[in-house]
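## retry 2 of 3
previous attempt timed out at serialization; input unchanged, resubmitting
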Amino acid sequence: MRLGILGGTFNPIHLGHLVLAEAAREQHRLDEIWFIPTALPPHKPATGLLDGRVRLAMVRLAIRGQRAFRASDIELRLGGISYTLRTAQTIHREHPRATLFLIVGADMLRVRWFGMDELRRLCTFLVAGRPSGPSAAKVPARRRIAMPSLEISSSQLRERVRTRQSIRYLVPEPVERYIARHRLYRAATKQRV
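## retry succeeded, writing output
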């Protein structure tokens, strides 16, 4: 099985995440893509990070209907800081016959990763450029993900909700309804549902 790993805070998940996953699945012939919300991100502050169960619920709503997509609570179960190496080791241990592909934005190549040598041994990196960030031009063509330019970020979406602006057409409709129903992102503090 060719298994794609797409991790992130998903605070909230948005159409950019879904387009990235679908482009990776299609271009690199991936059988499944696992969306894995982090417990605590290692590269940025967890300010305003919703409870992991809430973010996982939004992921499940967002991917409903795409049979190749799965929501995984692996990093939430592991707890603590979510190092991708620990996640990849756990998946490799539980699914030793799977070939693992780590789906990342080109901006993440500039970040210092914990256990990068071991991570490269366990996973093939698939890289997508971002419209406002570094391109994936230095990445070998066979590892690039070509996708439409979508300038959407979770931080923008949180700010739009906080200031009572629409997020319609930026997140899947079930996610938009979930955020509204539970009044998420209305305040700058950590919220639990």
